[in-house]
Each structure stands twice: as structure tokens, then as C-alpha cells.
Amino acid sequence: MKLKRNVAVSENGFLFNPETGDSFIVNPIAKEILNYLKEGYDIEKINQLILDRYEVDLVTLEKNMEDFLKMLQHNELLDR
Amino acid sequence: MKKLDYERPILNKVNAGMPDKFGMKTKTATLSHIEEHSVHDILKEFGSPVYVISEPCIRKTYRTAHKAFSTRYPRVQFAWSYKTNYMNAVCKIFHSEGAWAEVVSGFEYSKAIENGISGDQIIFNGPEKSKEDLERAITDGAMIHLDSLDEFYFLGELAQKLDKKANVALRINLDAGIYPRWDRFGFNLENGEAWHALNRIMLHEHMELVGLHTHMGTYITAVSAYAIAAGKLADMAVRLQRKFNHSIKYLDLGGGFATKNTLKGAYLPGADTCPSFDDYAEALTSALLGSELPPDKLPLLLLETGRALIDEAGYALGSVLANKRLVDGRRATVIDIGVNMLFTAFWYAHEVMPTKLNSEQTENTTIYGPLCMNIDIIREAIQFPLLQKGDAIVIPRIGAYNMTQWMQFIKLRPPVLLIDEDRKIHVIRKKESFQEFNAQENVPKHLK
């Protein structure tokens, strides 16, 4: 699962999809996840990186991650 | 090394549109304590969901309302509208402040008597009054507000049998320039029905006309309507004086004052549009003082406002049950407060407040109640922070109607707490139990 190559993510969490013309705002943790996705990390690895840095349990993170990926897919931001 | 605070990742689509000149602040308000008690502690001790009522808030609101009217008109009396909230503890607070009782059924009448109110301080309104109810009211000397001609005949017959004079007031519906016009209660003024009924009461041997009453509607934000209604009732009182040389004891202008809750579909929040008690009092009392009523014989001004006196003092405390994603990408949050215990969610866009915020991030969210029923929606769309399962939420301003119009539907009713003036918590209504509820039923022998 990888973020589309032409999707731009700015330093302050502004995201632009040139294919659809849609813009998005993401929170800092989402920006971090997007950068990991861009680098091609798999979900398991991303989860581990977030767990190491944030005060969160695995179940909560997995639930939230699934929802976030669903939203990325819904907005056509992921490579199929 | 200390780990960073976590919040769930979100993706909010930017929807560019016309700037809103009434732009509201987007910051989410939080409420962590009620009268010095932590919401978390309350939920931990009494379970979730739970209602909380603040006694200091009730008393403060009542005194503000009373002062607004009594500083403008010499004779003012409030009557607590039982249907708005008939928890005995709540009624007793209002009675201790000096309010009489306004009831609309035999059940509420019994409650008022149990709460120590004497019959001559009970206003008995409403379309349904049984034979037993009316006989009791006649004997007690309660103020019986007639709703229909059928009731007039019925009451006359009963008073005659008891050989007593019933204290009677006429409920009048009138055009005060507002919509909708309530014409289902009482007798119409403009078509002459009310005057006709008044003549008959005046000529009845077993009835004493004590008052004139109108109740124009609910959540009325146009204070001018009260001025029009007060003027019309005053004219009617003057007309009675002229024809029968009869001074009525009181004018009852009912209730209907708005609260700071926002009505569904309203463009501006209720907190910005709700008139103050002073606004209502100024319009209403100016009309009375400016009328033809003789200054030395001013009738008592009775007010039955319920909603505006209690809404602010009530809170519903609950928790997040689940977060979901709807097909169109919207967030859905399910909480354990449903329309079964928050009937007012059908007409208010209730504020739903978290107890704390980890960040300023929000998502467009639909808030559902816990019932397995499609109508159970608390908010269709609200910019809501990123709460997790188990997080506490507070819905403020729910003191009016929710503890009387609540439904035993799917779930049992939660407990009601009162925080007194010394900040002590009391359970004023126990959580309903399965045993109590089931004990009302009877299964026929052949089905056992």
C-alpha cells in the first residue's frame, strides 16, 4: 500500500491531489504516516514506529489506522 | 523517554466556498466539571449515562426571572410547570423559592399535593381532567382552567352536585402575531368564542371567574408577542369589569420563553438569539401597565414558564461507544445517550461537549445514540473532536422535558442526580431496574 507518487504533502500538513484537484488538511500524526507510506513502509512497520513514539495501545492504533487508510482510499490517494 | 500524546490520524477535505459573514468560532468547548465535581468521577460512581441537575443553577435562574418581573410589575407569581420536570426534588426547589404549581393531569396534581402545595396554589390546566380530578380540584379550591365547552358543562354539573363554587379561569387562544398559532387549547378570542364562554361562566351559580389565561406557544423569541397577548387579556379584563363589575384576580400569561439551546435549522446559535428575562418582562409588563386596567386594582400576573427556568440546570453525561466511517466518508460516533433519554434532540441541535481535548483537530461527525433504531440521531452534523471509545461527553441544557418525556424504549431509564448548594450529590431518582419494570406485567395462565 503506497501513497500515489504525484500526491504532494507540505510541511504543515496540507495535501494536494493533482489528479482530482482535491486538497486536504491532515494532523501531525497523519502527516507522519503519509511520509512513511510515501517511503514505501508496510503497515506493520508503520504501526511499530508509531507505537514506539506515541502513548497508544496496539488495538486503538490498529482501529485508527484501518480507518485512516480507508479514508485515503476513499479519496483516491493510494496506488492500487 | 516520555512518549508523545496520541490522537488518531485524520484527513479533512478542504471545501472552498463562500465565506460566511456570520462565521462562528470553530473551537470546541469542553466541560470537565459540573458544580466542582469531575464528570469522570460522576460517571465512575454512578455509571453511564446519567442525568445531573444543579440546584444552585435552578435557584439562580429562578431569582433572575422573578427579579426581572417583580421589579417592573407590583404583583407577580410564578407557578412551576410540572410537565417540564416533575422530579419531586426539582419541584420542591421551585416551591421553596415561592413558586406555586401548574399541573395538567391528575397524576401531576397528586405530585403537587405530595410536594406540600395546597389546592388554592395549584393551577389545573390541560384538556383532560377526569371526574375525580375535577371533584378534588373543586373541593381543594384549585384554579381550574377551562379548555372546552364540554368541560364547562361537566364542571358545572359536578360543582352543583357538590354544592360548591369552583374557581375557574378561561384558557384563551389568540393571535399575537406569531406562527404557529396555537388554537387547539381553550377558547378563541378573535371569533368571540372566549367572550361567549366568559359570559356563561359569569352567569353560572357554581362558578367563580378568577382569572384569564393564555399560552401562545413554545420557544417564542419574539417578545412583542407577549405585549400583544397581555394587552388583549387586559382589554378582556376591563370589559368584564365594565359589564359585570367583576374584578378578576389574575392574568396568566403562560410560558413559552426560549432558552439558549439552538433549534434545528436555526442560522444563529440560541445563545445569541434568546431574549433575556428582562426583555420578556419589559415587553409584557409595559403592555399591562399601559392598558386600561385600573392601577389600584391590578390583577396578579401569573407566569408558568418551565423550559427557561430549568433547561440550563440539567446535564446528560455519557460515553462514546464506538466510532465508525459512513459510506460517504463522514465520521459517525455512537454514544450511550439516545433519543429515549434525550427527547429534545428531535427539535434542538444540542451541544455535545467532550471533557478534554488533546488537540484542536475536528472532523465532520454524525452523532448517533445507542438504540437499534434509525431515528436515534443526536446530531446530524457537528464538527467534533477525535474521541475514542470510552471517552466521556456532556450534553448541557437538557433540564426541560427530558426527565418527563423520556421513554422506556429498548433501555431502562438512567438515574437522576442533584448537586445541592453545598455541592453534595444526591440520587433523586434511582436507575430503573428490570425487576421493577417487569413487575408491571402479567402473563396469562395459558402462556406461562
From TrEMBL, chain A:
InterPro entries: PQQD, PqqD_sf. It comes from Labilibaculum euxinus. This is PqqD family peptide modification chaperone. Pfam families: PqqD.
